[in-house]
Design goal:
Shape: elongated
Number of helices: 3
Strand content: over 45%
Largest sheet: 24 strands, mixed
Structural class: mainly beta
Radius of gyration: 36 Å
Number of strands: 33
CATH class of the largest domain: Mainly Beta
Length: about 400
């Protein structure tokens, strides 16, 4: 009876104070991290210090033929390469490769190959291929390909190919640059620049392709974007860019059809002309560059252009020198919808070979220079016409 009474009293106390009756359920304190190994030496993974650490030890210094450890908090230099299951806080260098399963804070260098399993804060580079599974804050470089799965803040450069999730700094490659995010800085290549986003700064390559806007300069044979401040190239495809046709006549009777296409500030000109007014009637083809002054949608605007043309007799094609260089200032006034009237002065220089230089009407002021086989004539000119956007 007394035993039963004692059990009931204990149960009653447990209900009143369950914390006192229950055992301590708090988790055990985490075990302290093992102290770093002052130095580790490996001949091969599992042969050397790694035979004890099994790729989990933290090393201050690591060396050998092929090193295998958990992480390095200091420096690792291995004849063939180093394998880390975690990260680097310091320097990891290998004769052929340097591989880290985690982030790198410092430097990672390999003769042929490097890979970081996380972000790089510092520098990573190799003679062939460098891979980063995260972001780069510093520099990433390789002889062939430098590829980052995250954004790059700093420099990413390679002999053939670079790739990033966006760049704030410089992206440079001998052949192809790819950015899956915007570029703020400079993107330079010998072939293709591709950006899925906007560019703020300079983009230069043979072909430049952007899905967004360029707040800066594009320079290449082919430029593609939504719009740009300045697109300098043979072919500019700017979906929201400035595009217009010009039909104009000059003081010497040269009628031109000019196509202007480009960005908000800078455009390219393609010109074709016919001059039937002189004894040697001629046709011309030209290419030029111009600057637009004023707002894109302004009714009154000013362009300054530099246009170079090759001229040839109307009845054939002559390849000897007959070149016309015209520096023009053009004022345009929108009169109705896409239609504008244009007019302005010009300064012309015509350089011919083997025959008298053509030029303005007889009483028009001109400067002539006889240079033996060549004749150079300079004169002020005017042009008037229409443009259609």
């Amino acid at each position: 009876m007394s035993a039963t009474l004692s059990l009931l009293l204990l149960m009653s106390a447990a209900r009143a104070n369950p914390a006192a009756a229950a055992p301590d359920a708090s988790p055990e304190s985490a075990a302290p991290a093992p102290a770093p190994v002052p130095i580790g030496v490996d001949l091969w993974p599992g042969v050397g210090t790694s035979s004890v650490g099994r790729g989990q030890d933290r090393r201050v210094l690591s060396t050998g033929l092929v090193c295998w450890a958990g992480s390095v908090e200091g420096a690792e230099a291995c004849a063939l390469g180093g394998l880390l299951t975690e990260g680097v806080d310091g320097v990891q260098a290998g004769g052929l490769f340097a591989v880290s399963g985690g982030p790198v804070s410092g430097a990672q260098l390999g003769g042929a190959f490097t890979r970081s399993g996380g972000d790089v804060e510092g520098a990573a580079g190799s003679g062939a291929v460098s891979l980063v599974a995260g972001a780069v804050d510093g520099a990433l470089g390789a002889g062939a390909a430098a590829l980052a799965e995250g954004p790059v803040r700093g420099v990413v450069a390679a002999g053939l190919l670079t790739r990033a999730e966006g760049v704030e700094g410089v992206q440079a490659a001998g052949l192809i640059n790819l950015s899956a995010g915007s570029v703020d800085g400079a993107q330079l290549s010998g072939g293709l620049n591709w950006v899925e986003g906007d560019v703020r700064g300079l983009q230069a390559g043979l072909v430049n392709i952007n899905s967004g806007d360029v707040d800066g300069v594009m320079f290449g044979l082919v430029n593609v974007a939504e719009n740009a401040d300045a697109a300098i190239g043979l072919i500019n495809v700017l979906r929201d860019g400035r595009k217009l046709w010009e039909l104009s006549l000059t003081e010497e009777g040269l009628g031109r059809v000019i196509r202007k296409a480009g960005g908000r500030k800078v455009h390219t000109l393609w010109a074709a002309g016919v001059d039937p007014s002189q004894a040697a009637a001629s046709w011309s083809l030209g290419l030029g560059i111009g600057v637009h002054h004023g707002k894109e949608d302004a009714r009154l605007w000013v362009d300054t252009d530099l246009l170079a043309e090759h001229r040839s007799p109307i009845n054939g094609l002559r390849l000897d020198a007959d070149e016309l260089l015209s520096a023009r200032a053009q004022v345009g006034l929108q009169v109705a919808g896409p239609l504008s009237v244009v007019a302005g002065p010009a300064w012309n220089l015509r350089w011919t070979e083997g025959r008298t230089a053509g030029g303005p009407p007889a009483r028009w002021p001109a400067l002539n220079a006889d240079m033996g086989r060549h004749t150079v004539r300079q004169w002020p000119g005017v042009h008037v016409g229409l443009t259609v956007q």
